[in-house]
## 1
Amino acid sequence: MSGDWPTVQLGDLVHIKHGFAFKGEFFTDEKQANALITPGNFAIGGGFQENKTKYYSGPVPSEFVLEPGSVVVTMTDLSKASDTLGYSATVPGDLRYRLLHNQRIGLVELLDSERAALCFLHWVMRSPPYRHEVLASASGSTVRHTSPSRICAHRFQLPPLDEQSRIAAVLGALDDKIELNRKMNRTLEELAQALFKSWFIDFDGHDDLVDSEIGPVPRGWRIGSPDAFVEFDPTIRLRKGTEAVYADMKAIPTSGPAVSEWTRRAYEGGTRFQQGDTLLARITPCLENGKSALVDFLADGEVAFGSTEFIVLRPRPVVPRVWPYCLVRHEPFRAHAVANMTGSSGRQRVSAGALLGFRLAVPPSELLRRFGLVTDPLFDRITANTAESRTLTDLRDTLLPKLISGELRAPEAEVLVEAAG
């Protein structure tokens, strides 16, 4: 039982190495062989995520190149809730670039491999007791900081080495499936976006092109604004005091279509939306960061609400539900939206009316119908994968503290994971 496990400090088992202050003059958005790991690469709850990769074109000290399988920890967090502070992540081995050990990130170096497995300590550093201690000892108000000494002060019970490996394997299997779903969803969305660009922007397959205000377009197509395809901020009734689904700006992703979380609360105001609508953040920096979503978690006819800083795009009858989402992820459209923001510095917004100034070619209804026939199944799969990942995440987060504390043993958890598929 866990009562037989000795109590240790993380500092008995690991050393946290500081990262290197890479020079800002070499930061770039253009793809390079090297990229910096940043706090944005840590998912809420721990684990690695690809998020707005910041590439590096300058000289690289070899001792600050991270090897696949390395465990790193974020020691700075800019979010109001310190969503990722202190959490750990494992460097993946399937990236298209090398990750560099950047400042504000700690490298977890194992001191005693006969007593502890690094893969297990990674999960200790994602456990609720550890997280509580890190937050309680963090410094700073707007920007929160922790330190190697604070991280290493965490005390926990250390199971035998073979039990550590089994615990890590159980939790890792769930994380692997969640990551597989995420990669599959990214591929499915990329297919839809590529088709959108090919058919409606590049006009592939059309040889008979004529000049227009936006350049050559297929003969017979007219030039219009987005309201030829979507209704902006449609009128939706929801009586005050009615309990309904609520999603805030935090839940809207910077990449991918899925709203991450929602609650229920009494409606007292806010932007209303329904199943199949696309949400676009109108305010800085959320718009520039790419916050957009396709609503896929409501019942037909159900009315939900959220931040007043959403613009709602509803597809017109002939337009597939995926089309408006592809539009708001289209870089020229986003650039138009950003260029038309108004207001004081730090609180700039774009209006739905300003989006009408974006010009694009309006295709025949039959081509839109065909686009839906191809892309609807892709996004149905994305919705199913996302729902499965939510279930697996709940299971992982339930098992994690029980396994780390010894309340639940690895063989019992393995049965639960197998039952979950």
Note: The two ends are 28 Å apart (CA to CA).
## 2
Amino acid sequence: MIIKEVTKYLESKFPLYFQEEFDNCGVQCGNIYQEISGVMVCFEMSEKIIDEAISKKCNLIISHHPLILRKGINKIVPSDRVGGMICKALKNDIVLYSMHTNIDSGEGGGNDYFAKMLKLGNVRVLSPHSNLFRKLIVNVPHQYSEKLKKALFEIGCGTQGNYDNCCYSQLGKGQFKPNKAANPFIGENNIVEIVDEEHLEMIYPTHLQHSVIQTIYENHPYEEPAFDLLALENESKNIGLGRIGELDKEMEISDFLGYLKKTLNISVLRYCGDEYKKVKTVAICGGGGSGFIDLAIAQGADAYVSGDFKYHDFFKSHSGTLLVDIGHYEGESFIKNIIFNLLKEKFTNFATLISETEELSVRYF
């Protein structure tokens, strides 16, 4: 089995188009067409983890945080932290791969896992993604519609949540007159032609647009196929960053903070808010979620739990929402368990390991 088969499976669960614009999920470096020998799963790439992967004969390392963000790097040299890891990985035929905001946003990903850990009910997406999909509208002679639909479905069109091969169709009449320079598939030059056509509509992920256009031209019989590509503003109710839900029962703030520390196994947190307020509705976002404080407040959260709050962010607690900073690492380090479990359940012909050398580099005194 080659490494690409593993990454393809992971991307079927958490597609790369779920990621944020700043992000760089997927392959960081290496040859994904080599045979897989083993997988090492971690939260953050480090040279120590690469050494561990070498010693345990793992040639695929999957981290949560990407090694290279969208803004890129200026040079790759062994003396640089990132460059050194890339050099060592390539020298030892190791592929570095990351699942970051795509797994944060996806169903069953980091934020869903976080909500499940806190036993929240009636869970909704805090910041739903929009513009993930576009709509294709195309007319095709009725006898060629099945061929075109099959080709479009094969590249990923017509998938909506847990359903695939989805489309709307309607029979109608198409009319055209080829001019003298045309080479019509149906009809004759300078004569109006009326054809029984099928009107097809289906959605597709935005990133597939080039493939959609290419597939139409390869599988549509007309010299000049008629089609429209429409941007959609629909929000996805299941895909996006953060979650909001309800506790089984209302808690005093002191009890809620103790519940967080015990459940997430953390020794310290920062918070600001009304000491006498009770907590029932809780918003969460794994990692650094200070950008969603206003959303949590607007959606009526009694408490918002995330990481990387700045000093002035806490002033927003005057609205009545308790703000709790549990730390960036503490709010998503468990994501490596999601990746590990996915691979263990799907693949049995290679070893999948969680790094034993990884530890939080930030210390509290």
Note: Residues 132-232 form a domain with the Alpha-Beta Plaits fold (CATH 3.30.70.120).
## 3
Amino acid sequence: MGLLNGTKKPVISLIGECMVELREEADGRLSRGFGGDVLNTAVYLSRLIGQGAKVQFATVMGDDPYSNELVSAWQSEGVNCDLVGIKQNSCSGLYIIKTDEEGERSFHYWRSAAPAREFMSSEWSALQAQVFENDWIYLSGISIAILGEEGRKRLQSALKEIKNSGRKIVFDGNYRPILWESREKAKYWYEQFWELCDVALAGAEDEHAVFEDGAAETTLNRLLSYRISEVVVKQGTGPVLLGTPSEITEAPIKPVMNVVDTTAAGDSFNAGYLYGRMTGQNMMTSARLGATLSASVIQHAGAIIPKTDMPEMEARDLL
């Protein structure tokens, strides 16, 4: 039985940030695209789920030409943009990716004035109300990092109100140290949001950086101690750990020989996993779907691969 059931078309609101992406090529020239961890998940989920669910991206963008381009690009991917606010006289954030010979990437950001940081302010309360009326709410550690202290408090309060309403909260613990004043501050807020979520999509490396977990199994057990009903712990090339209050197992990961760029590896895994659960697959098959998509994504440059390079994602092929 999938997470999203019934005859009503489910709505998923993904709260996050998207920026202009510049990628440095071997000859020093820059190519332009777009990216952001939650937006990446929204695009891939929209591609996979099609008309089976409404995938909404919730954020605030500027009124500059690049912001307009980004919103149009998301809409062309089938992402619903009704919850995208437009702040006058402002510009979207920007980042540059540098990639080493092993495909590992480093990021350099210009985002301090990005309007997405203001999403939980009173100015956008009408958009917030629509988000929290929907079936599913998805957010990440980057989502909460950029909101600042007051924004996090408002978001926490809103999620507490819907915690027992039948709506579901998905949290991806994506961690960027540069966005936090200290590890202790990040740890405090991660604990608050882990305790609120129903589905945990964690990365062992991120959780170790925040909580100093010694092993992925430690992370899994800690997250289960928060009474989260469904826990996924990603380990890069290692097996994905899967846990519920009654069962713990793992899904092996096939090695990828041609790694070009690991950007959006976790974001695309999350999309594949949620796609599986929405379409009635169990946690194991959903993890394999996530791994299949992620393996394709890391063999391409950039966060969003061409639609023509999307892998076959029929769950029955993975049973």
Note: DSSP finds nine helices and 13 strands in the chain.
